[in-house]
Amino acid sequence: xxxxxxxxxxxxxxxxxxxxxxxxxxxINEEIISLIRRLRLDDIIQGxxxxxxxxxxxxxIKQNWEDVYISPYETCEVIDTAFEVKKDFGDIDLGxxxxxxxxxxxxxxSLKSRKDKYVCKLIGEELTIAVRLDSDTTKVxxxxxxxxxxxxxxxxxxxxxxxxxxxxxxxxxxxxxLIRSIVATHPIxxxxxxxxxxxxxxxxTYKTFKxxxxxxxxxxxxxxxxxAKEGLxxxxxxxxxxxxxxxxxxxxxxxxxxxxxxxxxxxPLGWHRIKDIAIWLGFDHEDDINHVTKMVEVVSKFDEDRxxxxxxxxxxxxxTKLPTETRPVAxxxxxxxxxxSEYIKQHIGIKV
Length: 352
Fold this sequence. Notes:
Elements: H1 4-9, E1 18-19, H2 26-41, H3 56-62, H4 76-85, E2 92-96, H5 104-111, E3 118-123, E4 126-132, E5 139-147, H6 152-158, H7 163-167, H8 172-184, H9 190-201, H10 204-213, E6 219-228, E7 231-240, E8 243-245, E9 248-249, E10 252-253, E11 269-270, H11 274-281, H12 292-299, H13 304-319, H14 334-348
Parallel strand pairs: 1-5, 2-5
Antiparallel strand pairs: 3-4, 4-5, 6-7, 7-8, 7-11, 9-10
């Protein structure tokens, strides 16, 4: 949940200020612009930043930022309703492109001289910055910077938050779970399956796996479609007596066919071909996969078996995002999950 990373950084300030959720006000907007301007003046990042990630897009619309994407389905009425539902933001996510030879370390070093103002921590592929407000120095907001220079299309698709969904109280994570469920249950043609299986069996990777486990049980694997960072891909599940086995070598996981096969057939359908991916999945327009409200329209036309498969897959994925005793702060609350699940169930026409 947005904000937790900044909360974890509060002790790094000399006086332990308080974290607050950002609101779309002039004061907070100026704080963000000031941070970006500093990084530009230090010649660390290129001129433009991308605000089209998560709910930050709504913040950017409110503050009249340039280069904000608005979907054809996001009418003025939808946007106004989204503002009413989403009144604050756990973090502000911005996509950046580094100048040649620059990295997150340069940002961290640049902001060290203002440790009273900024505290940073690199978490995975994001740099979290706790930003002290000039308008109230006892308060801190969270800004996350994402390097989108290598795979902007992946970030654009996978971190999109629909304002149409938001206006109905459906969180952005639900869109991600639903599209993954649709992809995972998309059938692979039998002829195509035979070709792919023959390809796997012919690889050294499969032969090594079989040699390692064949004395422990029946060696097998399953293939399905999946959304990887590279694009629409073939996901492989390694099995021994029907039990899943993780398989890697030299730190490289063999989770996808393209991880160990150079055959062109194994190559992902890249995110830059999002229009082709959307049409292949059964959507009329590439923007449809950005909205739960549009996805349920397509799913409602599937046969009952496919609907049930999608629903079951969605429920499995949803469990990984809910709070637990060991993870009290999660991406979605039980109440929010109930709202989304009821909407999906009702609109795809499934009875469970």
